[in-house]
């Protein structure tokens, strides 16, 4: 009898303990975010390093390969995206403002079926100057991609100067990306 009473109390206590642990974790995470520790600002070992050497087929048949060598000479934003990625859909309309600012825009379609990506671009629009297909994700691994979307700002010498993990916001573009691109274009 005593054992069943103990087990009953334990089964009531256990879910409450899990709930309180999760509440504590979320509160701790909010405190870290308030102090500036944000997950979309994951540091990259690739910052200030040359773009990994790559040559990928174009997502659009009949177009030339998309290669790292073509990135030199102009400030370029590489946007790693996929049609199955919900945050990519949120970010996508903002990419036009980057292109309007005079930044070359290269898309790398990550682990996606080409027909799905093409349909997605047909529905949402195609802001890219070139779009590569990284079906197996090898090039994304070389860049150090954590997940999609991810964006990399490349200077005229082909060096990575900025990385954004997660979708770009209007504030990210206005306050960080465009000023840095302007500086790199000097």
Model description:
This protein has 186 residues and is an alpha/beta fold. The protein has 2 domains: 1-37; 41-184, Glutaredoxin, CATH 3.40.30.10. It is 41% helix and 18% strand. The chain is built from 6 helices and 7 strands. A 5-stranded mixed beta sheet has the order 5-4-3-6-7.
Give structural attributes.
186 residues; Glutaredoxin; 2 domains; 5-stranded mixed sheet; two-stranded antiparallel sheet
The CATH topology of the largest domain: Glutaredoxin
Distance between the termini: 81 Å
Approximate helicity band: 40-55%
Please identify, by name, the CATH architecture of the largest domain. 3-Layer(aba) Sandwich
Structural class: alpha/beta
Strand order of the largest sheet: 5-4-3-6-7
- Count of distinct structural domains: 2
Q: Name the average pLDDT.
A: 88
Largest sheet: 5 strands, mixed
Summarize the structure.
The chain has 186 residues and is α/β, with parallel strands linked by helices.
Set out the fold topology.
Layout lengths: L1 H33 L20 E2 L9 E2 L8 E6 L4 H6 L3 H6 L3 E7 L3 H11 L5 E5 L3 H6 L6 E5 L5 E6 L4 H15 L2
Parallel strand pairs: 3-4, 4-5
Antiparallel strand pairs: 1-2, 3-6, 6-7
């Amino acid at each position: 009898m005593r054992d069943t009473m103990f087990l009953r109390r334990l089964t009531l206590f256990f879910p409450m303990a899990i709930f309180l642990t999760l509440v504590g974790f979320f509160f701790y995470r909010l405190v870290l975010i308030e102090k500036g520790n944000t997950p979309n600002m994951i540091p990259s070992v690739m910052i200030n390093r040359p773009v990994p050497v790559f040559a990928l087929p174009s997502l659009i048949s009949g177009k030339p390969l998309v290669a790292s060598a073509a990135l030199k000479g102009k400030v370029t934003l590489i946007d790693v995206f996929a049609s199955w990625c919900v945050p990519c859909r949120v970010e996508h309309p903002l990419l036009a403002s980057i292109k309007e600012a005079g930044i070359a825009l290269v898309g790398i379609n990550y682990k996606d079926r080409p027909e799905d990506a093409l349909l997605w671009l047909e529905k949402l629009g195609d802001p890219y100057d070139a779009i590569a297909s990284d079906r197996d994700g090898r090039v994304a691994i070389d860049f150090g991609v954590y997940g999609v979307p991810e964006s990399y700002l490349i200077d005229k010498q082909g060096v990575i100067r900025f990385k954004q993990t997660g979708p770009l916001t209007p504030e990210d573009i206005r306050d960080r990306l465009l000023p840095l691109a302007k500086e790199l274009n000097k």
